[in-house]
Amino acid sequence: MLTMSTAYWCLLIAALLPYLWTAVAKASGQRYDNRDPRGWQARQDNPRSIAASAAHLNAFEAFAPFAAGVIGARMNGVATEWIAVLSLAFVVFRVLHGAFYIARKPALRSLAWALGFVCAVALLVLAALAAT
């Protein structure tokens, strides 16, 4: 049985995903320069580093609506099972999104992005419906 603990663990994982992708970017590029991290990334020509950096930025963008959806759904009494299932699905799709980004699979990346987005929007819609 899924609990709110599941959703909260998913929040933690989603919050940490950007740092996973930036670690991949740093490990894939030329020798990392901590004195100028943004300049360093801008100078990279390794496709894996560039893609991982893009996945890093997109993971930050995706986190806010997901977090708002989980918290709003919980606050408005949405069934725990729905919150947990949508949270798990979101995290799976976001991990796949980053992996497909790095693997240079644009169609699969876009599909994973869209499915993760649907999960976040579903949480927000369920919260709004439960609040009325």
Automatic annotation (TrEMBL):
Domain of life: Bacteria
Keywords of the record: Membrane, Transmembrane, Transmembrane helix
Annotated source species: Lysobacter firmicutimachus
SUPFAM superfamilies the record matches: MAPEG domain-like
Subcellular location: Membrane
InterPro entries: MAPEG-like_dom_sf, Membr-assoc_MAPEG
Transmembrane segments: 82-103, 110-131
Protein name: MAPEG family protein
Keyword set includes Membrane: yes
PANTHER family (UniProt xref): BLR7753 PROTEIN, INNER MEMBRANE PROTEIN
